[in-house]
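Sample entry (733 residues):
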Amino acid sequence: MSSAVQLKLLTLLNVSAIKRPFDLDVPGGHRSSPTLSRETSLTPQQPPQPSTIEANGSSSSSSRGADGEPPKKKKKGVIFGGVIGPSGSTIKDGEASKSGKKSKKNKKSEKAVEVDAEAPTASASAEASTSAFALEPESDSSSDEAETTTSKSTTTTSSTSDAFTSHFSINPPILTEPTREAAEAHEWTSRRRVLGGLGRVVECLPKGFAEDVEGESSGSSRITPSLLPTYKSNSPNPTDLENAALRTMGGYKDMYLHGMERDEDIEGVRGAAMLHAVNHVLKSRRKIIRNNEKLAHAQSNSTPLPASFDPRDQSFTRPKVLLLLPFRSWALHYLVDHLFPLAPKENQIENLRPFVSSFSLPEGVEDPLLDGEKGKSYPRDHVKTFSGNSDDNFRFGIKFTRKAWRVVLPPCGEDKLIGCDIIVASPLALRMASDKEGGVDSLSSIEVVVADGLDVMAMQNWEHVQFVFQNMNKIPNNPHGCDFSRVKPWYLDNQAKFLRQSILISRYDTPEFRSLFNKSLLNVQGKIRVERTDFDGVLGHVRKGVKQVFTRLRGEDALEELEIRFKLFTETTLPALMKSAVSSSNTLIVVPSYFDFVRVTGHMRKMDKISFAAISEYSSNQEISAARTGFFKGKKSFLVITERFHFYRRYRLRGAKTIVFYALPEHADFYAEFMASPFLPSATGKQTIDIDEAEVTSRVAYSKFDYLKLERIVGTENAKRMITDDESKFTFV
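Predicted structure, serialized as tokens:
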């Protein structure tokens, strides 16, 4: 641990000690409720009233205490994930003599479901695809072993049977010095496998990862019993991909999923991610509550706890799950369709109506993307991405209590988010909150992060996503009421980032997403990335007879490749267009990045004999309308646009006969849409000008750094040939 981190941690400990008496900082100690006076918290308290643990894990106090008096309304405060909250439940005196043994009724609340963490191999993939993923409840004895930590024998059984108990234990067996050093140095051992449901994947393990440790730590995950009925009713027929994703998530490995084309596969993965996230929160909460009850019972009866009992079960702050999404409409879809349906019948959803109202379109406003004929004019993926409320600045939380799941509505600052279990936010909101509030302490204890829509976030601002991952699992600036005597040691050692699970979901793969996967995901349990090698490309969607010329750029360095690309455009492509009788007008130039857009338009403005218009994602509606009209009527010979402009607007640009791709677009569908623009009909539905396919051409510049984009456009086989062959030009007709 560095000296700066040690100094920061000591400062937090000093601040926490000032705010409460030192004699309460004993191991396993807990503070009284902040509503009570300091004198009251220091005086011996009356024994707590008996309560009965219900099947769903909640507690119902008896109407009379042991002495026949009505129970007091004030409840003892306990530390829960760094936040003070009421306990309200104790252990019956009659049950204390049984050394924590539970009745059959109580054991029902501990029944869980074993999720197979070992994915089937290639030979078993056919069997996995035909048989549904079974969620079988475990026996009472196995449930006791998975949850009880008061004896050494049960602790060992728990570590080998439940991935949650092992991965986030006080001393995780996988968190060793060799694995930490290998993960921090980005030294991973990669191997390719075929997993049933997921297909071909690349699995990365830290170099110090021992096979015997893997067998002990990567046990199966168990689902909280209260989630089973709702999950089965919400997803009665899960897909093979959903089953495989749930198995892998249950092993607490990092996952990077992309290339999913079917809606049922995408929604299945989202449902599996929400089930896994809620299950993680409920199991963390249940463990803390049980330890609170044991501590309260021992304090009230003045009985010592077993020597093997270790109360270190908490973190710096309460939030354990981060759901990172691009738009409000995505957050609404996730919660309404995947998270809230998991709530048991006895749990209420608080603030549901104001949440739906706040994250939907304003009353009386119709969504043009869903408005009949207008919506049909937009591509299907555009409608799914932007329909609904497309505000990209939101941050709120979800808090789980015994009887309700509460939505903590925005605006909510760090003080409110600290008391939540799940944080739902956009990258922009987290970045702005950090700049305004001086930090993101609410992300200091995130153990599971689900980032969906990476492709959309890359079009917004990829630096915000990088900022979020760089600032997770850091020691907070303020203690926020943290009980350091119950914080797990690997949090204090600033090692939480080596146990955090990250689940990344995107429509397609890019070098930026690969970099995030390789450099920011340090989970010593390992990580899995889906690898697709069966792209057909979109050339089949281009009209036959259209000439498409691909020119290869040769550069060994990415920075060098930028200069080679600009030189090719300014010294070869643009002069050739100006000399051609056909290409000297009606030419559309597509530039993916705004940086290159500024550079290209700046060069074209220096040229005397060229007439062009330029529109980007920052152009106003008036500028866009003027540029489109001038280009279609021939007043402007060239029209320069950015890929982000097309991503957000998805306009049909008519009037082009030559399409120049300064670089390949990330979205493969964009290539086919641009190539179809010369043949678009008029607004009345009739083609006003008869266009010959031989008159339409395209020029594309690519390099080996564009391989991921290239294979999505021309197909995997063509992409391999175009990268490895000695030829520099390839033509498709």
